Amino acid sequence: MQKYFETGDTIDIAKDMLGHTFTYKSDQGNFSGIIVETEAYLGPIDMAAHSYNGRHTKANDPLYQAGGTIYIYSIHSWLDMDISVQKAGTPNGILIRALQPLDGIELMEENRGKTNFETTNGPAKWMAAFGIKDKTLSGTALNADNFIFSDKKVQTPKNILATPRIGVKNKEPWTSKDMRFIVEGNPYVSKLPKRDMNLDTYGWL
Prior knowledge:
8-stranded antiparallel β-sheet; single chain
């Protein structure tokens, strides 16, 4: 799995993650979903990245670890999760923005207090749905303990759309760069208007 996150361009990896499953083995049970939305962050050169200009703290250290390391951080009291990309020392990351639920849906809805698409259609939303309440597991490796990323896709996007990242303000030219990737039409994509939802295929082939 480490090889997957360390070989190839960060943008390409962010696109390829769409259609893979992400699973959390928790005390409540197993939660899993299909990744439908990601954002790429290109480390020291990227004004929107936590490691911009080589910033390196105890909190963001997971970004500097081997590809496939979990990085959990807080934004406005909400928790988000990145996966470190590239070899240790090159702090690129990919934010998992949204998941289409597979396992543990009833518990997800209970954890979130929401149902249907609202359960996991955002980075902090799916984290809450999975019952992740703190940063304890930040710095752990994918496929080593609590978090599992599937070796292969379980679904193939019919079309992948690239858009500017969400919430990146006043950081041109990085604000406008198309570094957010979504499964076109998938109703679990964050901030997707109802008119753009494909409720027949959910955007899969």
